[in-house]
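Record 1 of the preview.
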Amino acid sequence: MSSPADTILARIRDLQDQLEEEFERRSAAFRYRLENGRVIFDAEARRRQRAFRVRLTDFLRGTRPMVVLTAPVIYSLIIPVLLLDLCVTLYQRICFPIYRIVPVRRADYIRIDRHHLAYLNALQKLNCVYCGYCNGVIGYVQEIAGRTEAYWCPIKHAARVGATHAYYAQFVDYGDAEGFQDGLAANRARVAPPHKAHSP
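->
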């Protein structure tokens, strides 16, 4: 018999599937398709997109000076994000096989595809590549951290947490000493199924 939490999680998964179906339906309306992970627009869609592009000079002319002055601050974050990406990837490659945790596919989180949009100028494309990479790394890191937490410490916090990963809802309740060992085993089995070989 499933718990109320399991029922809610199943409803969330159904809603996520419906949302993905809606995204796919809208992609047809905007006349693009994916081929081997590459975005392909038909010629008419590209022509229409180009008609909406704001020229770089006009874009820069309309940008407030204080916004321009913050650019070095924003772009300087690429260094810690690159280091985070590298360190977490190394951590996963070294530790996950030992723990037998299913590895996280980096390509599932880091998507660089907005530069294919013809209605963006060169600077907007650069910004979109930057944001896609940085936010993708954060999602990738959260998934690795979530699987690690599910393996080692699957206990809910006493107070509400602002944002949680996909595994948190099935963690053991805070203070449930009696259920902890069984909950630990169940959470480990979710991220590291027994008798299964994994390769990152």
